Amino acid sequence: MPSPVSELIELLSLERLEDNLFRGQSRDIGTKYVFGGQVLGQALSAAQATMTVDRDAHSLHAYFLRAGDIEAPIVFHVDRTRDGGSFSVRRVTAIQHGQVIFFCAASFQADEAAPEHQLSMPEVPRPEDIEPAPAIAADVLATLPTKVQRWLDRMGPFEFRHVYPRDELKPPKRPPYQQVWFRLGQRVGDAPVLHRALLAYASDFHLLGTATFPHGISYYQPNVQMASLDHAMWFHRPFRADEWLLYSLDSPSAQGGRGLARGMVYDRHGKLVASTAQEGLIRVVADASAASHVPKA
Q1: 230 Rama class: left (phi>0) / alpha (psi -120 to 50) / beta
Q2: Residues 228-240: pLDDT tens digits?
Q3: What class is the 4-111+129-290 domain?
Q4: Domain limits of the chain?
Q5: Which of these is catalytic: 228, 248, 251, 275?
Q6: Annotated catalytic residue: which of 42, 204, 221, 251?
Q7: Rounded distance between C-alpha atoms, residue 10 and residue 25, angstroms
Q8: Catalytic residue at 96?
Q9: Average pLDDT of the chain?
Q10: Any catalytic annotation for residue 186?
Q11: Active site (annotated) includes residue 83
């Protein structure tokens, strides 16, 4: 059986159909629809594959338009919008069943020396000092919907260690911030393009959930409806996704059925390597049977 890490790398390795056209497969990881991080990582992989000069992705701005079908492949069309003296821009459109489900713009820059500064990493315990999350008891798991069972019971490609763990099945009300250490489950190659695609995939975990903290709700509750609406990401410095990274998250606002969350990603030495932001749909509905965690737009 292939490992979860090798499956993820295969997922991010797209089939090239034409110069600017790619096809990626989908995976069922326990979500009702295609996981947003999968589309982010695949779209970035497609954009990176069209670069003909030595430039690295420094930003990604995306919108999720429709829920993705986990049973169908996704076609990615890349528009080579601009190749300037220092920057390149690519627009990527993701299509399933003849409809656009996602689009993004990614910007690439040639490496150059310039003044630097960053915000300091929060003072938190090291990942080695945090116990891995215990497995959910079988009798508790059996009471949850099948999809949620598979999500919670699966061995994913990334390992997560929460600095301040929260019971997602019975969530307390807490201030809207959290810190999570994470890393890929095994060592992989050195290619920076791979590590950026892996981080884009992982950046969708725990981000929007931070906006639920003050309200004592979570994705796992049947009457809670959540979906990513957009996603922005900035790559600041080199990193490895297979070494411990700290995801420091906060949510400055939730209103009108939407929550905003932000994240900063540090390596274990305190270097700020990436930043993220996401707005997502958050609804608490009266009829739990009608709730869909990733509704169609």
Answers
A1: beta
A2: 999 999 999 999 9
A3: mainly beta
A4: 4-111+129-290
A5: 228
A6: 204
A7: 9
A8: no
A9: 91
A10: no
A11: no
